[in-house]
Write a structure and sequence with these properties.
alpha/beta, Aspartate Aminotransferase, domain 1, Aspartate Aminotransferase, domain 2, 2 domains, 13 helices, binds D-malate
């Protein structure tokens, strides 16, 4: 008899965004004439930057010629891409990260989900609430939690992120070993300062804990005082792993390219207390379970670091940030409290009612799809998230419809 991993039975029946997609398609099939504007899942709509398209085409041509054809690439990613990442995303900001510490992958979702394989079954895990569901669900699947009661899994330490603390959690007042942080935050759009981040780095050092820092939305930071990387904080190389993605930055949600930084100085501990390189472990995991991102995709990603590429990426980001500003201003003018939308593509809105009820009301009365805050955790109850990823004209139309429905 083939038995199953019973921990899966503790999960919600379907993943948040699959659940929303099902509801929207059920609504669309009963209302076929209704125009639906999707501001739910953070999925980009603008095409790839032209430099990436050219690099992609050129690399496909190379693959069509025996003299330039490439088979398996290096599992960790081609050096041309890792060097461009290290130089532009880290060294240029004074963060001491080298190409050997970068692992190119097909997504930050996969990496933030898979990284927990490196850690012991008994570790104490702190997650923000609201939270990107992948951090929680993958630990549930791995058996590190009890069952879910009242939107929270037994065994996890939930760190409330509320308007009162500016959506930055307090340091846990119980010992923890693994801490998930995401800034600019998904879903709230809140950002963290260097001083606030330093407290977390010091705390992790003190506890011999590890921070998993999800920086997938760093490109949306416009305020020069906000750190783009946890490695801008001194000492973070010993206690933090960082995740980044080309998805939201350069429109790669359908093309797939991301990377994870595991510094060589970053440590975990064996049962006997002896230090263990997490870089070596992730390298072992990556080379065993992953065969690398395709050559054309890595070429397309590397092209974003050329001077022209950087300009084109900036234009993409600015386009979505204009959407974000429009949404934020409109929602605020309707009298709702909101955060995000300034250094982030997400606007987190206090809807002052059950967030699934608000979701349904918005869909039915305006045809606009948002994400109910409750899907991100208990502290998301009463909130909705609106994403700025869509065409500007559609965003304007969505705001008109929302104003008519709620104004
Ligand atoms: C979101 O909408 O939260 C993101 O698109 C999810 C993701 O990147 O996987």
């Amino acid at each position: 008899m083939i038995t199953i991993n019973e921990h899966y039975l503790k999960l919600e029946a379907s993943y948040l965004f699959s659940n929303i997609a099902k509801r929207v398609s059920a609504y669309q099939s009963t209302n076929p004439d209704k125009e639906i504007i999707k501001l739910g899942i953070g999925d980009v709509t603008l095409p790839l930057p032209p430099v990436s398209v050219q690099a992609f085409h050129a690399a496909v041509d190379e693959m069509s010629n025996e003299a330039t054809f490439r088979g398996y690439g290096p599992e960790q990613g081609y050096l041309f891409l890792r060097e461009a990442i290290a130089a532009n995303d880290y060294q240029a900001r004074g963060a001491d990260i080298s190409a050997e510490e970068i692992f190119v992958s097909d997504g930050a979702k996969c990496d933030t989900g898979n990284i927990q394989e490196l850690f012991g079954p008994e570790i104490r895990i702190a997650v923000p609430d609201p939270v990107y569901p992948v951090y929680v669900d993958t630990n549930v699947m791995a058996g590190r939690t009890g069952s879910c009661r009242d939107q929270r899994y037994d065994g996890l330490v939930y760190m409330d992120c509320t308007a009162d603390n500016g959506f930055i959690p307090e340091l846990p007042n119980v010992p923890v070993d693994l801490i998930y942080l995401c800034y600019p935050n998904n879903p709230t759009g809140a950002t963290i300062t260097g001083d606030q981040l330093r407290k977390w780095v010091d705390f992790a050092k003190d506890q011999k804990a590890l921070i998993l820092f999800d920086a997938a939305y760093e490109a949306f930071i416009t305020d020069p005082g906000i750190p783009h990387s946890i490695y801008e904080v001194e000492g973070a190389r010993e206690v933090a792993i960082e995740f980044r993605s080309f998805s939201k930055t350069a429109g790669f949600t359908g093309t797939r390219c991301a990377y994870t930084v595991v510094p060589k100085t970053c440590l975990g501990y064996r049962a006997d207390g002896k230090a263990q390189s997490l870089h070596d472990m992730w390298h072992r995991r990556h080379s065993t379970k992953f065969n690398g991102v395709s050559y054309p995709v890595q070429k397309a990603a590397a092209a974003t670091y050329s001077p022209e590429g950087r300009k084109q990426v900036r234009e993409l980001i600015d386009y979505y940030l204009r959407n974000a500003r429009t949404i934020r201003n409109e929602i605020a003018s309707l009298g709702y409290d909101c955060v995000g939308g300034i250094n982030s593509p997400y606007i987190w809105i206090n809807g002052r009612e059950d967030s699934w009820a608000f979701f349904d009301r918005l869909l039915e009365n305006s045809g606009v799809v948002c994400t109910p805050g409750a899907g991100f955790g208990k502290c998301g109850d009463g909130f909705i998230r609106i994403s700025a990823f869509n065409n500007y004209t559609k965003v304007q139309l969505a705001m008109e419809k929302i104003r008519a429905a709620l104004g």
